[in-house]
Amino acid sequence: MTSPSDHPQDFEDPVPVLLGRVYAEAPTPLKSRLLEHMLKPLGLLSLATVCNGAFANLAMNRTWAIPPDLVQKLDPKQVMALATYVQQVSVHAVTGLSQVLSTSPVLQGSVAASALVALLIKRARELPQPDPRDLEDFAA
Predict the structure, then answer these.
(1) How far is CA 99 from CA 36, 43, 58, in A?
(2) What is the pTM of this model?
(3) Is 43 in a helix, a strand, or coil?
(4) Residues 102, 30: contact at Cβ < 8 Å?
(5) Which of 18, 42, 53, 134 is deepest in the core (most CB within 10 A)?
């Protein structure tokens, strides 16, 4: 039996697919930065369940540093599943990946990275902006 992640064309959203491609071609330090950025909004339960518990040990680690061996074990399909999950928790966490990707000289020639950055920037612009007046109640 196959899962939707076995066939990238089955994803309705191109972000996870492009992120999986970028992850496949990125060097280990950049992979770590991408993962750290996506994992920030996740709670302990999410870490234990997403990607079949691949990140469960991070909850006990307390440093939130992702070990290089974990970075190497994750395949693009798992990163695609992680991106899909993270978008449900915090769309800002995924759109914020454009900053991580755009500062990487290694990926400047990558078509997948360029397409992903353009798509993330477009989505970030489409997100509703918070009204500063909504935060006035918290300032007191």
Answers:
(1) 13, 23, 24
(2) 0.75
(3) coil
(4) no
(5) 18
